[in-house]
Amino acid sequence: MRFQRCVRPKSKGHLMRITSLAVALSCSCALLPVTAVAEEAGVDPPLALSPGEAPPLPKQGPLAQPRSSDQVGFLKVLTEYVISPATLTPARVALGQRLFFEPRLSGDGTVACATCHDPDRAFTDGRPVSVGIHGRVGQRNAPTLLNALYNKHQFWDGRVSTLEQQAALPITNPFEMGSASIADAVSRIAGDTDYQSQFEQAFGRGVNEQDLLSAIADYERTLASFDSPFDHFIAGEANAISDSAKRGWELFNTKALCHRCHALTENQRDATLFIDNDFHNIGIGILRHRVAPLAQQAERELAQGDLAAIDTTAITGEMSVLGRFLVTRKQSDIASFKTPGLRNVVVTAPYFHDGSMQTLWDVMDHYNKGDGITDPWLDKDMQPLALSESEIDDVVAFLASLTSPQYKEVSDREYARQLAISKISRPQRDTARAFAPKPVQPAPPPF
Ligand code: HEC
Ligand code: HEC
């Protein structure tokens, strides 16, 4: 059967007709405006900041626009399941997009959502851990928001489940946007007549907290990102990815064991989102922290279920490393984090919840040696993999085939940058351990 390609820009300067998800799903008649896709827009290293200074607010370029549903690999059924078409209207999405770039939602008018989720960087900030209001440095790496609409849990520790609940937290987090309350943030835009009419248009009433959060969440629900070379390959274009990437996809599902976590099911290959809606301790950060005393401290100091306190701790304190444990208080969740999706992963460096690894080769070296031997809570699927250097290159080539077309040029440049680093520096590589048998894991210490 012949495979039909989607209409999309072939090179910079071409125009792309964006049929937004909002429009596609609400069957409304309007189309969002014709938008040029700046494929030449590059991602530079994040700016160095002076003490006390928040990062600059990124410009709202074409990559901030809602994504088309007309993408190869687009998950139509799942999308219809997670989105209520009646509520996802163009007016709400446009309002949400504006609010996403609105620094007045922060305590001192300097920080917006986009500060840490820059559309030109696949909605991340390029930093190991995020920097917010007054230059305060948090504990965690900013995840991409592309495809966050499909997440069953939001945040690395899954402390909330909906995008609405999520959006409320950074606005008041003292290290992020630092507003005294959501009401306080709302009060700073409530007098703006443009906002008044936009809220009226979107929700039929004035500026208010609940609709503000809904609009932001609705905008995020339009950020579906597929149409990668890998999607074209899965759809039947045999030459859409390199032989190396094809070998990498095989390894991903076999010897490298990636599918044990980055797949919705282990029995069947899953080429959708590369998540399992679950949490695992894979030995990141845990070796640098004494987690057992921290867990005891959390039990003493943090009221279970106090979402605001968990949010502050996760972003601002050393107990952040406890991950999912902060939410569930189950010992088995100590230093467990959510399995992140892998689409556009080349563009979203550095890696892991603490941004501790610079390149995908470092990530592979970590998995290859099954790092975390002294970690009693390490996931059973972490073990030495005995991958050769060329097998590692193949898995990285596969990961690079998951880049959506808007980010192709940035991704190619970033891939080249990481490859160059990997030639001179492989801090995580331990070939002897990668080829050794799995060591015996220590028992958890008494609590
Ligand atoms: C100062 C930087 C910063 C700002 C500002 C910020 N975020 Fe984030 N965002 C992060 C970090 C860091 C995380 C991960 C935190 C964690 O997991 O504990 C995150 C996580 C998220 C997630 C969860 C994604 C996932 O895959 O789990 C969403 C959604 C999100 N942010 C949206 C927003 C929205 C909407 C705003 C504005 C209301 C916003 N962020 C403001 C840094 C920021
Ligand atoms: C035992 C479950 C498990 C296995 C097996 C696993 N992963 Fe992961 N992966 C995770 C979790 C959990 C995280 C987040 C961990 C953290 O940040 O602490 C993660 C993070 C990542 C990241 C970083 C993404 C980002 O945005 O920072 C990449 C890349 C990745 N995995 C690729 C792979 C590859 C490739 C394999 C196979 C070699 C693999 N994973 C095997 C669970 C797993």
Keywords:
disordered N terminus; two-stranded antiparallel sheet; two-stranded antiparallel ribbon; mainly alpha; Cytochrome Bc1 Complex, Chain D, domain 2; single chain; 17 helices; binds heme C; 447 residues; globular; 3 domains
Question: What features would you describe in this structure?
Answer:
It is a single chain. This protein has 17 helices and four strands. The chain is mostly helical. The longest helix is centred in the C-terminal third of the chain and has 17 residues. The radius of gyration is 22 Å and the shape is globular. Helix 3 packs antiparallel against helix 7 and helix 3 packs across helix 8. It has a two-stranded antiparallel ribbon with strand order 1-2. The chain has a two-stranded antiparallel sheet with strand order 3-4. Helices cover 34% and strands 2% of the residues. The protein starts with 14 loop residues before the first strand and ends in a 13-residue tail after the last helix. The site of one heme C (HEC) has 25 residues, from helix 14.
